[in-house]
Specification:
Largest sheet: 8 strands, mixed
Strand order of the largest sheet: 2-1-11-10-12-13-14-15
Distance between the termini: 64 Å
Strand content: 15-25%
CATH class of the largest domain: Alpha Beta
Structural class: alpha/beta
CATH superfamily of the largest domain: ANL, N-terminal domain
CATH architecture of the largest domain: 3-Layer(aba) Sandwich
CATH topology of the largest domain: Rossmann fold
Number of domains: 3
Number of helices: 22
Radius of gyration: 25 Å
Length: 596
C-alpha cells in the first residue's frame, strides 16, 4: 500500500503538500480555506488531547457533528491513536443516541453544537461508558459537564511538546487489520447493528475505486451528505484525502444549490433525491416559459440524448450530430451546467436506486452521473459506472479485487477485502450475514446486464401479490418520482389482490397548479385533500406506469398528509423509507382503499 494505514494517509499530507488547500468552510459571507499543514497540525492536537484522556488502541471515540473540518480532523486524530471512531447521525433522537453510545462502549463523545448537546443531555443518566464530553461550538456559557473542543486541542498541544514523536510512533504501530470504525446501520427495522470496518477494509475500497475513477489533486468536492454515512465518508472524505483533493463543506442541505454556484465543484457525491429535485425544477422552469424556448429545450434534449446514447453504446458520433450537440450546449446545456457550478467532471449517485430516466436526462445535458452500489458492510463500494463505461439503469461494472455472485433466489453475494470484520458484539447476526465461505449476503436482488450489475430491489421489499406475482417496487417508485407533482412514493400490494401507493405530493408545483385551477386551500393538508388534486396525481401515476403489466399497475393512491421525514420516523437517517412505519401510519386509509 502507498500508506501504512488511514492515519498515515492524512498525516503524510503535511509533508507531501503542506500549502495545498485541504478544506473550505463558509464563515459569514466568505469561504475560508485551510491548508493541509494547518489541518494536520490541528488534528495532531486533537489526537494528543485524546491521549491525555487515556484514549488508546481499540478505545471508541464517538462523534456527532454536521459536516465540517473538525469532523475530518477528529476522525483522523482517533485513527492516529489506533482507536475506533463511532460516527452518529446528528438527526438521531436521544434514545437512539444513547443506544449507540452504550452498545459501542464509547469512552469520549464529541458533538458540534447545542442542538446535539441537548439530545445527549436528555439521555445523560442512561449513558454507562462515556466519561468525557466535548462540544465544538457554544453560544453562551459552557454547559455543565461539558468542555470545549478547543480545550482538548490546547491540552494536546502541550502533550505533543512534552512527548516529541509520540503520535508518529503510534501511527507506525497501526496494523491494516486494526479496527478503524464502527458504523451503526440505520436499518428500517429493529435496533441498529454496528458494522466494524478495518483499515484494510477501507483502504481496499479506496485503491480499487481509484483504479477506475480518475480523481485528481486539482478536484474540488462539495460535501453535504452526512459524513456519518459510509458513502460520503468514503468518497468525500477518505478518497478525496488519498488524492489530496480540496473538500468544501456545504453550509447545510438547504444551501446546496447556492453552494454549488459558489464553490464550482468538479466532483460531488449525492443520493438520488437531489438529482430528482434538480430534474423537476428544470422541467418546471421550462414548462413555465414561452413556447419557443420550450421547443428549443426539448430539441436540444433529444440531441443530447442521441449523443450520450452513442457514447454509452461506444458508437461513433456522426459529424451532423456532433455539430447539433455543440449548438445545443451553447443554447441550453451551458445554462444548466452553470446551475451546478459549471466545472463538474462527474457526479456520483448512491445510497438508493437512481431512476434511469433521470440519469439519462443528466447525461443528455452533459452532466455525467456515475451511479454506484454498495453497503456499509462492504466499505462500501461494490460496483460503479465509469466515465467511459456506463449504462443507465445499472450500477456499473464491479470494482477490481472483489467477487460477486447471484444466489439462486436472486440475492447479491460478495466476497473480498471490502467485507466488514463483523457486527460488534453480535456474533449470530455476523454468521447470518457472512457465510462459512466468506460470502456477504447483501439482502439486495440483482442481475448482471453484460458486465454491469443491475439492482432490482431489496429482498425484503419484494411484493408478492395474493395471485402469486412477484413485484420489485423500487423501479416503479422511481418512475413515479419523475413527475414534477410527486415528491416521494411507496408501493403497497404484498398479499393483496392489486397494487396501490402512498404518494407524497410536491408542494410548490401542486400549489401552483391549484392556484391556476381555482382550487382554494389554506394548508398543505387541505391541498392534498382536494379531490381534484387526487385526480391529478392518479392521472400522473397512470400515465407513468401505462406500460407495466396489469398486476404491477397501481390502481389506487393515498396522498400523504405530509412528506416522509426522519423526524416523523418514516425515513432512516440515510433517507430510506421505513415501509412498515408508513403502512402503520396510513393503515386505516390503506384498508379503505382495498375495501372500497
Amino acid at each position: 500500500m502507498k500508506y501504512q494505514n488511514l492515519a498515515d494517509m492524512f498525516f503524510e499530507k503535511r509533508e507531501e503538500m503542506p500549502a495545498k488547500t485541504a478544506y473550505m468552510m463558509k464563515v459569514g459571507n466568505d469561504w475560508k480555506s485551510v491548508s493541509f499543514k494547518t489541518a494536520v497540525d490541528q488534528a495532531e492536537q486533537i489526537a494528543c488531547g485524546l491521549a491525555t484522556l487515556g484514549v488508546t488502541s481499540r478505545d471508541r471515540v464517538a462523534l456527532m457533528s454536521v459536516n465540517r473540518m473538525e469532523w475530518a480532523q477528529t476522525d483522523f486524530a482517533t485513527l492516529a491513536l489506533g482507536a475506533t471512531l463511532v460516527p452518529i447521525y446528528p438527526s438521531l433522537l436521544s434514545d437512539h443516541i444513547s443506544y449507540i453510545l452504550n452498545d459501542s462502549e464509547a469512552k469520549v463523545l464529541i458533538v458540534s453544537d447545542e442542538s446535539m448537546r441537548k439530545k445527549v443531555d436528555a439521555a445523560r443518566d442512561q449513558l454507562s461508558t462515556v466519561k468525557h464530553f466535548y462540544i465544538m461550538d457554544v453560544s453562551g456559557d459552557i454547559p455543565q459537564g461539558w468542555k470545549l473542543l478547543s480545550e482538548l486541542e490546547k491540552a494536546g498541544e502541550a502533550y505533543a511538546n512534552e512527548h516529541a514523536g509520540y503520535l508518529k510512533e503510534k501511527i507506525k504501530s497501526i496494523s491494516p487489520d486494526d479496527w478503524a470504525t464502527i458504523i451503526y446501520t440505520s436499518g428500517t427495522t429493529g435496533d441498529p447493528k454496528g458494522a466494524i470496518l478495518s483499515h484494510r477494509n477501507l483502504f481496499s475500497n479506496i485503491t480499487s475505486s481509484s483504479s477506475i475513477l480518475e480523481v485528481r489533486p486539482s478536484d474540488v468536492f462539495l460535501s453535504f451528505l452526512p459524513l456519518s454515512h459510509i458513502f460520503e465518508r468514503m468518497a468525500g472524505h477518505l478518497l478525496s484525502c488519498y488524492h489530496g483533493c480540496t473538500v468544501a463543506y456545504a453550509e447545510s442541505v438547504d444551501t446546496v444549490a447556492a453552494n454549488l454556484v459558489e464553490i464550482k465543484p468538479t466532483v460531488m457525491v449525492s443520493v438520488p433525491r437531489l438529482y430528482e429535485k434538480i430534474y423537476s425544477r428544470v422541467l418546471e422552469s421550462v414548462e413555465a416559459g414561452p413556447a419557443g424556448k420550450q421547443k428549443i429545450f426539448f430539441w436540444a434534449l433529444e440531441v443530447g440524448r442521441q449523443h450520450v446514447l452513442k457514447i454509452m453504446n461506444k458508437e461513433s458520433i456522426p459529424v451532423g450530430l456532433a455539430l447539433k450537440h455543440k449548438i445545443a450546449h451553447k443554447l441550453v446545456f451551458s445554462k444548466l451546467h452553470a446551475r451546478v457550478g459549471g466545472n463538474q467532471r462527474f457526479f456520483i449517485s448512491g445510497g438508493a436506486p437512481l431512476s434511469p430516466e433521470i440519469a439519462e436526462f443528466f447525461g443528455a445535458v452533459g452532466i455525467r452521473i456515475l451511479e454506484g452500489y454498495g453497503l456499509t458492510e462492504t466499505s462500501p463500494v461494490i460496483a460503479v459506472n465509469r466515465e467511459e463505461d456506463f449504462k443507465f439503469g445499472t450500477v456499473g461494472p464491479l470494482i477490481p479485487g472483489i467477487e460477486v455472485r447471484i444466489a439462486e433466489d436472486g440475492e447479491i453475494l460478495t466476497r473480498g477485502e471490502h467485507v466488514m470484520v463483523g457486527y460488534y458484539k453480535k456474533d449470530d447476526e455476523t454468521k447470518e450475514a457472512i457465510d462459512d465461505e466468506g460470502w456477504f449476503h447483501t439482502g439486495d436482488i440483482g442481475i448482471f446486464d453484460g458486465n454491469k450489475l443491475k439492482i432490482t430491489d431489496r429482498k425484503k421489499n419484494i411484493i408478492v401479490t395474493s395471485g402469486g406475482k412477484n413485484i420489485a417496487p423500487a423501479p416503479i417508485e422511481n418512475m413515479l418520482v419523475t413527475s414534477k407533482y410527486i415528491e416521494q412514493a411507496m408501493m403497497i400490494g404484498d398479499k393483496r389482490k392489486f397494487c396501490t401507493a402512498i404518494i407524497v405530493g410536491a408542494e410548490e408545483p401542486l400549489k401552483k397548479w391549484a392556484d391556476e385551477n381555482g382550487i382554494k386551500f389554506d394548508t398543505y393538508r387541505d391541498l392534498v385533500g382536494s379531490p381534484k388534486v387526487n385526480e391529478l396525481i392518479l392521472n400522473e401515476v397512470m400515465a407513468l406506469t401505462k406500460n407495466l403489466a396489469s398486476y404491477e399497475s397501481i390502481k389506487k393512491i393515498v396522498l400523504a398528509d405530509e412528506p416522509f421525514s426522519i423526524e416523523s420516523g418514516e425515513l432512516t437517517p440515510s433517507l430510506k423509507v421505513k415501509r412498515k412505519v408508513v403502512e402503520q401510519k396510513y393503515k386505516n386509509r390503506i384498508e379503505t382503499m382495498y375495501s372500497e
